[in-house]
Structures are given as C-alpha cells and as structure tokens.
Design a protein that fits this description.
Layout (H helix, E strand, L loop, with lengths): L1 E6 L3 H16 L5 E6 L12 E4 L7 H7 L8
Parallel strand pairs: 1-2, 1-3
C-alpha cells in the first residue's frame, strides 16, 4: 500500500510519516509512506493508494480528490 500524507508546508506530515513507517515496520507491513506539502502534491498524488490530509487542508480535499486517481480515498 502506498500512503501519501499532505500538510500545509510538509513539516507535520514528515513527522507523521516517520511515525507511521516505524509502526508499519513493527507489524511487518509492506507499505510505502511519504509526505509532501500542499504545493507539491500534484507531483506524486497519482502514485498513492490513499491520501491522508491534515485538518488545516480540509478545504482542499475536493481539489485533491480531483487530482487523485479515481476511487483513491482522500481522508
């Protein structure tokens, strides 16, 4: 599973991505997790199986849904 985390500047999402990677490793889960800033999301959004968005970007969820592959959850 490929998980993309997105926040306003990429700082919070990078910290969260690191924590998720650690937990996935403990559970022997095969995941690819990466983080991006809102301004850079268009460069990697199509590669994600799921997109997690911080609360600060709640108003951008519909934009991200339009950019993502059809059926990709944007949470």
């Amino acid at each position: 599973m490929k998980i993309l985390l997105c926040c306003k500047a990429g700082v919070t999402s990078n910290m969260f991505a690191s924590a998720l990677k650690d937990e996935a490793s403990k559970k022997d889960m095969e995941v690819i997790i990466w983080a991006t800033a809102e301004t850079m999301i268009e460069y990697s959004i199509e590669q994600a199986d799921v997109i997690l968005v911080t609360p600060q970007l709640k108003s951008s969820v519909s934009k991200f849904e339009d950019l993502a592959k059809a059926g990709t959850p944007v949470i």
